[in-house]
Amino acid sequence: MTTATARGQEWRRRLLLRNVAGVAAGVLLRLAAAAGIAALVLLLVVVARDGLDRLSWDFITSYPSRIASRAGIRSALLGSLWVVGLTGVLAVPVGIGAAIYLEEFAPRNWLTRLIETNINNLAGVPSIVYGLLGLALFVRAMDLGRTVLAGALTLSLVVLPIVIVSAREGLRAVPYSIREASLALGATPWQTVWHQVLPAALGPMMTGVILALSRAIGETAPLITVGALLFVPFDPRGPLDSFTVLPIQIFNWISRPQPAFHQAAAAGIIVLLAVLLGMNAVAIAIRYWSERRRQW
Amino acid sequence: MATAEAPAAVRRSPRRRRLLRLQEAPILALLFLCAALSIFTTVGIVVVLVEEAVGFFREVSIVEFLTETRWTPLFVEKHFGVLPLLSATFLISALALAVAVPVGLGAAIYLSEYASPRVRAVLKPALEVLAGIPTVVYGYFAITFIAPEVLQRLLGQQTLFSALSAALAMSVLLLPLVSSLSEDAMRAVPGSLREAGYALGSNRFEVAVRVVLPAALSGIVAAVVLAMARAVGETMIVTIAAGNVPNLSWNPLEAMQALPAYIVQVSLGDTPAGSLEYKTIFAVGLALFACTLGLNVAAQWLLSRFREVYE
Amino acid sequence: MVSQEAPGPSVQVPVPRVEREALRPPSEEEAVIEVRGLSAWYGPFRAVKGIDLRVPRRRITAIIGPSGSGKSTLIRCLNRMHELVPGARVEGQVLFEGQDIYAPGVDPVEVRSRIGMVFQKPNPFPKSIFENVAFGLRINGYRGNLREAVERSLRAAALWDEVRDKLGQNALRLSGGQQQRLCIARAIAVEPEVVLMDEPCSALDPIATLKIEDLMRELSERYTIVIVTHNMQQAARVSDYTAVLMMDEDRAGYLVEFGPTREVFTNPRDPRTEAYITGRIG
């Protein structure tokens, strides 16, 4: 090394320190990333440890009971299916409709921007505030009472922003050239959307919709406020029945001091996570299948 | 439009055109209504909260609401100071962020600057799973594991319910949010900046922390603010893990009641509609809504400033 | 391309098209489309200015010029596709069979069903071959036999023999050249009077290109064709009339010359045309 490019001792030493710091930092960063996974694994292990034994076919088919060993999730599971099913029926068409309007038809003016900003803000409102809205509007003002319908209407408002955002992404994924080709044949914008864009966007949209519904199935707070009951020893039969949902049943059991109820809660959590896993698997399968068909 | 020689096979009569437009008009109107529903929702939320809160503030002075240090609306001797609920909410959120932000940011730096695409492809979805777990599960985790195993063993903590327990559970919930948004912000920084850093002789960590991080700063701050908004509004974890007795204290080892937890408490009871107790949940809801709205608006503003620069 | 020593422009113009050759610009009665004083903007930017043009019936008219001269913009104004871009604006008139398509009250949807378009990059719908051709017929309320109409179009587009036994197959599985012929079949299925083609061969290999050029000549027996191309040999090979566009200092495109192709290429009136054709500019 010539004197022109020689680096002094001081610089060499600092380089060493910098490299050591770099390596140490690299380790810490990997630990941080691993911490998240570790927490997830820990969570699952705790739940499994507590709840696996309690899980049984009886558990799924029995009603809740004051006797911990006999308590089951039947009514809660049915209630969840009713509420989330009804939420899907309400929120999905409206959400897709809103997405189509915003993506394909809305003019670029202040009203459109207001609606879009609004949707973004609504996505950040705590779900319990939706519960308050549902309580005052659906339960009281519309006099629906503490029913499945009131719960589903409330939950629809909660998931609507998510459905709209995912549906818009699905629509955006369809290349503009398809719309161009359709319009050039003399199709109206609606004909273009209905016959070409929507069918092509269906796959990604369905994925987003299912993910939104899987959010809905885990929602607890707004349904508590709207009046889901804590103790429901019967099957809900229709949208105007009282009800409870799985996360609320779990919450109920968690709130009891007896460890036997905590075991029931853990078993309920396993069922809830299994349902979520199933829904996410379906969403991923749909995405995979629709991407294979698409070829663009 | 008159046609010179209309081909017989393909009908294009003006009548058919007009019919088509007529048929499509109500469809477009319906689509617009679907989009406008969001505005009605916001209006509905504001109207409902404000209406009941106004009724509340007719009986309780807003000064007492904001300055009184006791919250006992369900007791015989009623005090309506919201400070204990507010302080609990913010203490828990701050503690949760104090854990989630460093860890989340670290994970984000790793994913953005260090990890190979294969590792990213596995790690990112795994972290997303954390975000999808229902919050009751985190509540369960807090009182069956965090409180007894961690806090009691490490700190000799006596009570099962504490702000710290809730905060630790919440930090796991917030981790993917902070990590994912920060990583997006960092990846939006153009590669040319990194190259410049490397060309000057920096190592990977220095480039990440001295070049990329400052460039992504407003995006990262937005992520933190969004996480804060999420923490403030999070209900089930605080209800299960932090306790249900309002307590104006900065000691994280004590049990306390956060804003949303109070609303749950009243909802579970048999409060008659129209009563003062009923109205308190709307007053508290309004306070909650105002806080999260302010935080979300701040985050959106930060994000728009960030995007201006990089997109 | 062109030899530098030749005294004048010497692009080869193939001879055997004498019977169809025009010797003068089209008259008003012969023009199916007449453009008058057309200017088009994208927001504040003017892309073409002051275009006056007559597109003759059942002939092939080529629009050539260097990139940025507004060729695509011009052709998109002819079937009201230009206005789909947000902030787009048009001034002037485009008369189709004597009537201004930009007059208030004219439905652009109808204009597009009578003036069809084929795009630079083939864009078949992600559906079956049959459905691609049938779509235009369905939405325009076709009452006849769909299968026959689809077969007619595919034959006219010289694609029938290649796809007759796989009509149900997804159109995206065809080769690029086949997809473009499918797009042509799709466009002519609705029996437009004019077919616009925006650089239809630029994404295709030379063999597919020649097939489509042959197809164009056949089609021009029934349809008026306007083609934008940056390939001068193609314009010389295929078209009866040629319009030359250039970019002015304000970056707006304007019409330099328009006339029968043979004349434009062998005896251009404007020095700029000659400069472009001999490759000195553009």
N-to-C CA distance of chain A: 56 Å
Query: Any low-confidence stretches of chain C, pLDDT <50, length ≥5?
Result: 1-10, 13-19
Discrete helix count of chain A: 11
Q: What global shape of chain C is seen?
A: globular
Q: Spell out the helices and strands of chain C N to C.
A: EEEHEEHEHHHHEHEHEEHH
Largest sheet of chain A: none
Assign a percent range to the helix content of chain A.
over 70%
Placed side by side, the strands forming the largest sheet of chain C appear as: 6-7-8-3-9-10
Helical element count of chain C? 10
**Could you tell me the radius of gyration of chain C in angstroms?**
19 Å
Query: Which pair has the most extensive contact?
Result: A-B, 86 and 89 residues
| Helix and strand element order of chain A | HHHHHHHHHHH
Inertia-based shape of chain A: flat
Give unreliable regions of chain A as ranges.
none
Strand content of chain A: under 5%
How helix-rich are the residues of chain C, as a percent range?
25-40%
Biggest β-sheet description of chain C: 6 strands, mixed
Please tell me how large the radius of gyration of chain A is. Answer: 26 Å
The beta-strand count of chain A equals: 0
Mean pLDDT, all residues of chain C = 88
Beta strands of chain C, count: 10
